[in-house]
Amino acid sequence: MAMRDEHPEVVSPRRMSSRHTGRLTDARRSLASWRREQAKVAAALEEALDGIRSPYQRYRISRRAELTSLLAVGIAEVVVADTVVQALGLTATATDLVAVAVGGAATGLAWLVGHEWAVSRDPQAVVAGQRGWLRLAAATVGTFLAANLGVRVYYGLLAEQAGRLGSGLVAPLLSGALFTAVTAALMVVAAFVTAHAETGKEAELRARLRRVRSRLRSVDDRMGVLDPVPDPAAHFSVIDE
Predict the structure, then answer these.
(1) Structural domain tally of the chain?
(2) 104 within 8 A of 73, measured Cβ to Cβ
């Protein structure tokens, strides 16, 4: 049996298989060690995210979702504002510019209210004595909506008089109240999204966590490729028999 084991046709393949198995074992051990380190990093990042997130923020709205929502609300505000700006009798370009300005102001005020609401409930800001402007922002929004309603009612009344449809106040008031309610609803949506959106620090930690999880998935795939191979000694023992 020993002489058969020393036969070159048996010894050479066995050595090649042994070296290959050793390399696979070393690679798998290195990947397993690296994966444990990355798992610890991911756990630390998750713990940090839970630690810096304020208790009132039950919704985890990402920065990208916040920007997308604000953009969509801003476009909707411009469309709604365009309905009343057209009554001013301006040129097409001026009408569009004024509508964009009004829609942008509505979205900006909504963002300010949401931001100040978040600051007013942030324990760190309270401890640091950071002054909030929530009341001023809310008063500004109220003034904006009141002016919005007044302009809509006024120009609605002028439109009725010009069309000789009468001078009643009910129809312009209902129309103005409807469009103002739509504007207010859009502002509430924008303020809510801003109030519950993640901060810059949270966004940074979440981006790092996504990268770590991506690397972990990549390592899991590679470790799946490096499945344990059969023991070559057992294979050649069959040949020897």
Answers:
(1) 2
(2) no
- Determine the Cα angle at 128 with ends 125 and 129, to 5°: 85
Alpha helices in 121-169 (DSSP H): 123-127, 134-162
Q: Helices 92-120 and 63-85, interaxial angle, to 10°?
A: 140
Shared domain check, 124 and 79: yes
- In this prediction, residue 229 carries a pLDDT of 44
For residue 56, the 8-state DSSP code is T
How many CA atoms, within 13 angstroms, populate the side-chain half-sphere of residue 45? 19
> How far is residue 166's CA from residue 156's CA, in Å, rounded to a whole number?
11
Instruction: Please give the angle made by the CA atoms of 196, 122 and 126, to the nearest 5 degrees.
Output: 160
* Gap between the Cα atoms of 155 and 44, Å rounded: 59
Kindly report the backbone phi and psi dihedral angles of residue 53, in degrees, each rounded to the nearest multiple of 5, phi listed first.
-80, 135
> Are 110 and 185 contained in the same domain?
yes
pLDDT average, residue stretch 194-221: 80
Write out the residue range of the structural domain in which residue 66 sits: 59-197
**% of the chain with per-residue pLDDT over 90:** 19
Q: Which residues is 61 bridged to in the sheet?
A: 197
Same structural domain for residues 178 and 66?
A: yes
Strands (E), 65-136: none
DSSP annotation of 123: H
Q: Strand pairing partners for 197?
A: 61
